[in-house]
Structures are given as structure tokens and as C-alpha cells.
Specification:
alpha+beta; about 15% strand; 13 strands; 3 domains; 4-stranded antiparallel β-sheet; 7-stranded antiparallel β-sheet; Alpha-Beta Plaits; SH3 type barrels; 12 helices
């Protein structure tokens, strides 16, 4: 059974589709209920129909249909998690919900741009929405037609042959339950162009001189370093958990690094009275600002001061990060490196810039 919430019901249009597929349906207000198990082919055709403005969609297997008759307070959630394991570069039909002003909304193509570690540990993913309305050219959008040349498993019946504008400026985090159907995987060459456009649009690109994009720069302490380090998708996801303005205020304050670390950890929701959190703070302070480090190295340094084994320190730190940040797999080293980038005073070094 398939239930659709549409903006306006075009009786003639929906009737043509139903007759063609020999499907029975009932229509009430703005809701259309299709009986029986709905095939992927029909689901794709309905979702891709430009004349039907679909606001939300639910597809129930036959054994689930009886649940629709249950009282609202015991009814199943509106969406099931159809795709718990998504991958970088995959293309989905995504339900963005009702749009606000110029934001992209409703059901449309979306490209997963979050890296696979982030996709694995988080219930959300980061996507770029697409639109086939390409008459108006937007500089921050990337324009392409999906084909055998740029998709690993191209299927014209799934993705069509129309040109799509990949709306880089509308990149956003979405819950995985919004992903309604897998459509294919983009090839590396196309994803590289999309990521390059993302870097240019949100000013991760070092050579970008477009003053229309606002950028926040955080300087690094120590001697001048020529190579700039950019954030990865996991760290961008971590930044979404806090007020970035407050984070910057702390980093630019005159407090000693020990106080800064405590304030930043509190901002992320850590309880400073927990032993594992104190060990995490020590690991952050021990992390070098101008060299590579990993959790093993930092745990070893803290172990020398605390008289606790490296393994136990690592276990406690990982447990506190996982518990506080709500990830199924703790992004501990990404979190430490992120805080490491915020510990420098801008006036001491203007040569290396971290771009957010």
C-alpha cells in the first residue's frame, strides 16, 4: 500500500497512471492511497512525475497495511529507515519536506557527499539536492545530465535523461529516513567535480577570490606554516552540534589553553567531572599544533602523567566521546583535531588559515 500527500490532486493524471498499472486507489482531500504492493517501477514513475507535487510518501508492504488502521498513538513512524548504510557518491530520491521560500523541497534527487566514515557512524548524512529546473543559471550550481559516462549503474528508467542542476549552495544534512529510493552511484570523475564546486562555494578552496562568500578564518599558533589544512565532513558534522560563534569567541579569548579546552568541551556537552573527560582534555592539550598525531600517541603521553595504562586511557576517552556526541562509532581523533585547530590565538600567526 502506498500513501501520498500531494499539494493538488490532478484526478485525470493520477487516473491515467492507475489504469496503466491496473492499481486500485482511494482519494481523500490531499491524500491518495494505492492498494496492494507497489512496484519500484511505479514508485519511481510517480515520484518523478513533474505534474504531481508530492509533499510526502509512505510505501507499506502488504503485511504492514493493517497497521494503517491502528490508532494514531500506536501507529508506526511515518518513515522507515530503508537505507541505513549509504555511501559517498550515491544518488537517491530524497523527501526534503515542505520548502521554505527558495529552499529546495518535496521529493527530488539528492547526492550523498558525506564521507563513508560519517555515513557509518551517524543517523544523518550530508546531501546536495538536484533540480531539473535549469533555465536560470546559478554560478554555485553544477549542471549535468546523468548518463553511462558519469554513473556506475546508470538506468534511464530511474534517473531520466533531463539535465539536472546540482544545487551546491543548498547542501544540507538530512536524516537517513528521508531517503526513499536508491537510484545509482556517480563515478569518481563527476564526484570530484562536485566536491571541487563545494570547495569553491563554501570557500574551502584556497585560490577562491569570490568576495560574495563569507569565510571565517581561524589562525594557528606556532611558527608560520605554509600549507593550509581543511576540515573533513566528519568535523563539519561535529561543528553542526554547537554554536560556532561561541566556539570562535572561546578560541579568540585571552584564556589559557587549559581554560579554553574546558569551555569548548562544555559547549559540546561534556561533563568535566567525569574522569574520561579530564583525560580527553589532557589529550587535546598534548596534541601538537604543527605535526601529525593519533590517539595512540596522545594516550601514551597522558599515560606518563596519570600513571594509567595507555589502553585504559584510550578506552575512557573513546567512551566519553561516543556517549556525549551520540555517535555509534566515536569520531575521537577527528574531534581532537578539530579542537586542536581552535586553540591558537589569531594575533600570533596569520600565515596558516583553517577555513570553515
Amino acid at each position: 500500500m502506498l500513501q501520498l500527500q500531494v499539494k493538488d490532486i490532478n484526478i485525470c493524471r493520477i487516473s491515467q497512471i492507475l489504469v496503466r498499472h491496473n492499481i486500485k486507489a482511494s482519494i481523500s482531500n490531499s491524500q491518495i492511497t494505492l492498494d496492494g504492493d507497489i512496484s519500484d517501477e511505479l514508485l519511481t514513475q510517480i515520484c518523478g512525475d513533474s505534474e504531481m507535487e508530492i509533499k510526502s510518501i509512505q510505501n507499506f508492504a502488504s503485511e504492514e497495511a493493517s497497521d494503517l488502521l491502528m490508532p494514531v498513538f500506536v501507529q508506526k513512524p511515518e518513515f522507515d529507515l530503508l537505507y541505513p548504510k549509504v555511501k559517498f557518491g550515491e544518488l537517491y530520491l530524497c523527501d526534503f519536506g515542505d520548502p521554505y521560500e527558495h529552499e529546495q523541497g518535496f521529493i527530488r534527487y539528492a547526492i550523498v557527499v558525506q564521507n563513508d566514515f560519517g555515513n557509518e557512524v551517524s543517523p544523518i548524512t550530508i546531501v546536495v539536492p538536484c533540480t531539473t529546473q535549469t533555465k536560470r543559471v546559478i554560478p554555485s550550481s553544477y549542471y549535468t545530465t546523468f548518463s553511462y559516462e558519469n554513473m556506475v549503474d546508470y538506468d534511464a528508467h530511474k534517473v531520466g535523461t533531463r539535465e539536472n542542476a546540482i544545487k551546491i549552495e543548498q547542501i544540507r544534512a538530512v536524516d537517513k529516513t528521508r531517503l526513499r529510493k536508491y537510484l545509482g552511484t556517480l563515478k569518481t570523475e563527476l564526484m570530484s567535480k562536485i566536491i571541487e564546486k563545494i570547495n569553491e562555494t563554501i570557500r574551502l578552496d584556497e585560490d577562491s577570490n569570490n568576495e560574495d562568500y563569507k569565510t571565517v578564518y581561524i589562525s594557528r599558533k606556532k611558527e608560520p606554516l605554509r600549507k593550509r589544512k581543511d576540515l573533513n565532513m566528519v568535523q563539519i558534522q561535529l561543528l553542526s552540534l554547537v554554536d560556532i560563534k561561541k566556539l570562535i569567541e572561546i578560541s579568540e579569548s585571552s584564556f589559557e589553553d587549559e581554560i579554553k579546552v574546558e569551555k569548548i568541551l562544555e559547549l559540546f556537552g561534556f561533563n568535566l567531572t567525569q574522569k574520561g573527560v579530564k583525560l580527553l582534555a589532557k589529550a587535546i592539550l598534548a596534541s601538537p599544533k604543527d605535526d601529525y598525531f593519533n590517539l595512540e600517541t596522545l594516550s601514551g603521553i597522558v599515560s606518563q602523567d596519570e600513571g594509567i595504562s595507555r589502553e585504559e586511557i584510550k578506552r575512557l576517552i573513546v567512551a566519553r566521546v561516543k556517549e556525549t556526541l551520540g555517535f555509534s562509532k566515536a569520531p575521537t581523533i577527528d574531534f581532537i583535531r578539530l579542537i586542536n585547530a581552535f586553540l591558537a590565538k589569531q594575533e600570533e600567526n596569520k600565515d596558516e588559515e583553517i577555513v570553515f
